[in-house]
Amino acid sequence: MAVFPTGDEARAAGRDDTAGGRGAGGGGRGMPRVHTRRQWGAKPPRHRARVLDRAPDHIVVHHTATTNTKDYSKAQAYRLSRIVQRFHMRQLGWDDIGEQLTISRGGYVMEGRNRSLAAIRNGRHVVGAQTLGYNDSTIGIENEGNYSNAPVPVQLWASLVDTCVWLCYAYDLDPFQAIVGHRDFGSTECPGDVLYQRLPELRWVVARRLGVQGERVATPGHGDLHVPNQDSASRTVLRGVPDPPAQPDGMA
Ligand SMILES: [Zn+2]
């Protein structure tokens, strides 16, 4: 479910098997609240993004390597997206912001490259600029902050889990195979040692969320998860009735 929980709620969710609390029919696997380009004030892209008529095969977790701000507000989240877009377009000369999705330290999820939300809803892939050599087949999530040493804020973590559940469900991806760090695809420290070392946990939590409807999740590893994503009825429910947006204003 789309939540921007308090710290305690997020910690509880992180260790709780959510299957019991979420009904069948896509509950818990839907789209989290994603703030649109219009909301954060995106500049128009130089060119419309290219959309491929297929799903990506990996979800690449990044960190922005920017300051670990204590400003968890929506204003900071929107500012972050504008800063990243400006940097990618002006300094790097790209057509638009590189990543498809951005998550702030306060847990706000934002659309990145133009056409990304529509593409995800339709099971298609927007070609971004986030993982050199793999942009035709990977979708990237930029997480605000530098996680070489610092812990991941609980709000960011909760939204990263929600986002990965949503993407795995929308694209029929096995989280154990699909969720990777940027360094798995290139010579980079990204997403920092701390966040990278939490990727196994991320895969597990996402798998458990996807495992509602009584599907078995056995031991960690490839091939153990049966992702029940072939049910067209629940996919219709997923797309037709997204989780209600939560107002994050009460967040710490
Ligand atoms: Zn990266």
Short description:
The protein has 252 residues and is of the alpha/beta class.
Model description:
It is a single chain. The protein contains 9 helices and 8 strands. It is α/β, with parallel strands linked by helices and 252 residues long. The protein has one domain: Lysozyme-like, CATH 3.40.80.10. The radius of gyration is 17 Å and the shape is globular. Bound molecules: zinc ion.
List the main descriptive attributes of the protein structure presented here.
PGRP; disordered N terminus; N-acetylmuramoyl-L-alanine amidase; six-stranded mixed sheet; single chain; Lysozyme-like; binds zinc ion; two-stranded antiparallel sheet; zinc ion binding; disordered C terminus; alpha/beta; globular; 252 residues; PGRP_domain_met/bac
Tell me the name of the CATH homologous superfamily: Peptidoglycan recognition protein-like
Bound molecules: zinc ion
Question: In the residues, how many domains can be counted?
Answer: 1
Strand order of the largest sheet: 1-5-4-7-3-8
- Rounded Rg: 17 Å
Write the element-wise H/E pattern from the N-terminal end onward. HEHEEHEEHEEHHEHHH
Tally the helices. Answer: 9
What fraction of the residues are assigned to beta strands by DSSP? 5-15%
The CATH architecture would be 3-Layer(aba) Sandwich
Tell me the structural class: alpha/beta
